[in-house]
Amino acid sequence: MNPPPFPLDPSLWHATAVPAPDCPPLDQDVAVDVAIVGGGYAGLSTALHLAERGVSCVVLEAREPGWGGSGRNGGQVIPGLKYDPNELIAKFGEEAGKALTAFAGSTADTVFDLIAKHGMNVPHVRNGWIQGAHMASMVETAKKRSAEWARLGAPTEYLDKARTTDHLGTDVYLAGWIDKRGGAVQPLSYARELCRAAQKAGAIVHGQSPVQGLAREGGKWKVKTAQGATVTAGKVALCTNGYTGDYYPKLAQTVIAPNSYQVATEPLSDNLRKSILPYGQVTSDTRQLLLYFRLDHEGRLLMGGRGPFREPTDKSDWAHLERVIARLYPAVKDTPIQFRWCGRVAVTRDFLPHLHEPEPGMIVNIGCQGRGIGLESTMGKALAAYLATGDRKALPFPVTPVKTIPFHGLNRAYVAAVVAFYRMSDAGLA
């Protein structure tokens, strides 16, 4: 996939992140137990947990660790999946559904535990995540979701309109629910610190080392990079999500990878900060094309949501988010926008992460679904356990065949049509 014309440089996260770790390009052939393709949360977490098990591994990243979606998301750490606990049980059965629910519920814990364990220099808060109900039919959904998680012991609570308005600082939403396990991180700093932790544990990470070929020879995998150097490994893990290339047949056609657009204001005055999300939560809503927003660690208001599927061409591609800010928080409408950026999200047909094992010794993890910080950090632990032991019980999701999305070549037009439909049906703000 071609890189966007707006690289990390104009991103808020690039401007405020800790310095990048030293990850030189691979310049000579090496042999390890596991080769990991992709230096985002999943690949770096897999490397860290493999190294802690004493398994030798190399991460190959096409640019720098965190360059893709891991350094371009909204920084919200949200536990759970798109499906509620009862839906997971209905879909996978009692035993597997409960195991998946436990996995999904643990994802935020993984992130904050890793930050604490490794002393990561990552601005972060953990005051909870709120989902606001944007229309009357979603009020009951908010009640149901809160109650399902509460029955499992999660610290969740339903919020009526008055309390939702109090927590969010806007009266647009009719109700909501809070999951106190959620929070926020500076996402690029987290990716870079995850990389440092993996390196300290013994993993080797190479940036500027795009993979150009994968081949199995004599029971080993040969992973060839653009500069010609090759990694020989007994096993390979592919963890590339929204920036998946064509190095393995048809893998990129198993997901839709729309751009998620974000803007950030200049730092707000103290008075404005106190009126917006005053208790320090992060939030996203119940729209099909959801809006998500928060304050960053320096007091900027961030607003995110869908935009054009194509790569952005000028500032007008973010104008809808600026209009949303003015509707939600009129007092902020004249505050200048300081940063505009976007990043791709890997979405599967069933809105669940997919695990594939298309050939012996190759495991594929794809489909972050917009909850990649917690989900992919936790998936990395599971992948490492599987790669180290070969026990499929370590994997939270079933291993399925690679199945492409029908007529994938038309996905840009399809996504554009879906975006237009949902904007009409979503009681939109923009």
From TrEMBL:
Pfam families: DAO (PF01266). The keyword Isomerase does not apply. Signal peptide: none annotated. Residues 33-385 form the FAD dependent oxidoreductase domain. Keywords: Oxidoreductase. InterPro entries: FAD-dep_OxRdtase (IPR006076), FAD/NAD-bd_sf (IPR036188). This is FAD-dependent oxidoreductase. It comes from Alsobacter metallidurans.
